[in-house]
Amino acid sequence: MHIMKYNIAILHYSAPPVVGGVEEVIKQQALLFRRNLLNVKIIAGKGAQFENYIPVVINPLLLSNNDEVNDAINLLQQKKDISRINSLKERIKVFLKSELQNFDILIVHNILNMRYNLPAAMAVHEIADEMDIKVINWAHDSLYFYEDYEKIYDTPPFDILKKYNPKINYVTITESRRKLFAKLMNVDKDRIFVVKNGIDPITFFRLDINTVRIINNEDLYNQDIILVQPSRLHPRKNIELTIKVVKALVDKGVKAKALITGAFDPHEKNTVNYFNKLNTLIDELNIREHAILLARYTLPSGEVIESDRVKIRDLYHIADMLFLPSIQEGFGIPLLEAGMLKIPIVCSDIPPFREIANNYATFFKLDEDVNSIADKLIKVSESTKTTRFFRKTLRDYSWDNIFKKTILPLFNKIYEH
């Protein structure tokens, strides 16, 4: 995927650490763009810098409750005097033009459709008309969607808050919102793009940088089933069965991966031999992309991530289920870990596992056919709604996927026109 080097400014009434739904979206977007090597600046009425390399520029005239702005709107409503509104609009426009020099894209969140700062909305419309910058109205909401709005907002200059400007690109967050905005602005809904809000698993789970590198390298957001086996490299952990089961899943058309932690001791000959044996099996079955031994994980750069630098908890967070095929165990701590993190368990039918998780896990016999075990995994995945929705959330709503599939193509499209 080729990424053009865009310079992006994000504009809103307020920015983090101010708490709010749109403020959180702004934070996630800014982090996302930086992660994808785009330059980002946030412009707001209130807020502070929250990340290196993401400057935050503050001008109180952009606030949603600025006293000067409110006084000017009151004057306009009572005496039909627009002079102070126009004066504020010019001050905001001069400020924004200065801040937007050398920027390619301006993303405006809500200002153009909400009643909180009319001169700022007017200024943005004029900037779209006058500057060589692509303006995106990222519209979450509109005052006109609520029946109790004051009817003065149907009259000039207030009605600019529902005006369609062909120089502005329109984005909203759901199909239902797209229909509402199309009706409001009296345009074809194809003139409005839909970019869903997302969630960032990296910050939500506070994932370690090494986990993030593995996620990206293995495309873990776009799988059907991810198994985690947090086991040491020892024959009684029965890792061969995990490899064979993943092969069976792949043969059934499932996009599956097994994350096998396999703590590695290069000084222990038996460990090295077992590691080599597993690698040979993976190659024989031709599933190198599906059975991931994290004992000595090698990145495309050649850098090796040793297993002791991989956080087990992170792997639970991004897996769909715990797979534990041990031949023999004294206890089974991973069962408790899975219980704490609410992920399904599929494990071998051995006494300690029965004792711990009898009615709460899916069991298989150690001599059971590999295809039968694979079918059990598929059944657990398909019958557990939380697991299915987790997988859908990662695939459709992780910010990184949204960026690749929707936001970057949008930037490229508007920039070509």
UniProtKB/TrEMBL annotation:
PANTHER family the record matches: GLYCOSYLTRANSFERASE WBBK-RELATED (PTHR46401)
Coiled-coil regions, chain positions: none
Gene3D superfamilies linked to this entry: Glycogen Phosphorylase B
InterPro entries the record matches: Glyco_trans_1, Glyco_trans_4-like_N
Keyword terms, alphabetized: Transferase
Signal peptide (from-to): none
Keyword Translocase recorded: no
Domain Glycosyltransferase subfamily 4-like N-terminal: residue ranges: 19-201
Gene Ontology MF terms: glycosyltransferase activity
Pfam families the UniProt entry points to: Glyco_transf_4 (PF13439), Glycos_transf_1 (PF00534)
Species name: Deferribacter desulfuricans (strain DSM 14783 / JCM 11476 / NBRC 101012 / SSM1)
Name used for this protein in its record: Glycosyl transferase
Limits of the Glycosyl transferase family domain: 216-390
